[in-house]
Amino acid sequence: MALVEVINLKKYFPLKGLFFTKGYVKAVDNISFHINKGETFGLVGESGCGKTTVGRLILRLIDPTDGRILFNGKDIMKLTKGELNSFRRDAQIMFQDPYSSLNPRQTVFQIVMEPVRFHGIHVDDPEKFVVNLLERVGLNESHLYRYPHEFSGGQRQRIAIARILSLNPNFVVLDEPTSALDVSVQANILNTLKDIQVQNDLTYLFISHDLAIVKYMSHRIGVMYLGKLVEVGDSDELFEEPLHPYTKALFSAIPIPDPDTEKNKERLVVRGEPPSPINPPSGCRFHPRCPYSKDICKEEDPEFRKIEEREVACWLY
Ligand SMILES: Nc1ncnc2c1ncn2[C@@H]1O[C@H](COP(=O)(O)OP(=O)(O)OP(=O)(O)O)[C@@H](O)[C@H]1O
Ligand code: SF4
Ligand SMILES: [Mg+2]
What is the CATH number of domain 2-312? Predict the structure, then answer.
């Protein structure tokens, strides 16, 4: 059962000249996918491919140029005032930077209570309520009246998680939640997020450019390239047998510890930097970098098609 459905979604940012619009950044260009209730959907791709834009669109932090987003079956652009209010509680985001995402002048207590107060939710014993949330994320009562600068990056992300949980949401966008942290603390935070997902029956959109982390966290994965989704599939199956040449290239860049598996994997290296989303290449956007490119690839954009449990956009299939 889908909690989030994204249908033919587009976001073009206008490039403003002195007098007129000079063109558009096609940050998200006609993508469709869904996120099932209780699962983690991982979104992966190189910097600038549109991952954060997708997350912001789904949370209605920005308006789409075209397309629809359904949350619990309802079009988020057509919610009544009351429905929008409850959507703002149900759908939350956790940002990458633990240093700028918390107000330095607020105590942990104030930070965690702020969304609750903003939404006018009554809590019988606010102190007990916050302590309970802190304990769930691996902090405790002694942290209640301290300020963000007194905490490490990992602890700050824990405070951010407690703040999100204060609203008891159904859905959280995790936008590179650990990429600013030391590798040694990343795993702890990721495990906390996993535990909380099960306890609270949460649905996650997990955004990262780090494939190993995306695989660890996600049930299904969508691979993005220059504003397009090129492949969507079950996390294990995608790793076992990537179909799209870009997915193959991304996956062959990560180290595989088992030498037997390594032998079986086709290693593919993508040349060059991704082109600009302002004037993306014609046809398949990946064609200038694709070793399998053929004539049709330069002219026609391959449609997203279903191959068994997988969806892939490539003229090879
Ligand atoms: N508000 C905006 N105005 C104009 N262009 C934007 C805006 N926000 C994003 N873009 C552009 O849209 C494209 C996609 O950006 P986005 O932040 O979604 O990428 P990303 O995949 O999250 O990248 P990263 O991995 O670096 O976070 C980029 O070319 C970016 O410069
Ligand atoms: S459509 Fe063509 S260029 Fe694009 S990924 Fe497939 S083979 Fe490569
Ligand atoms: Mg981003």
Answer: 3.40.50.300
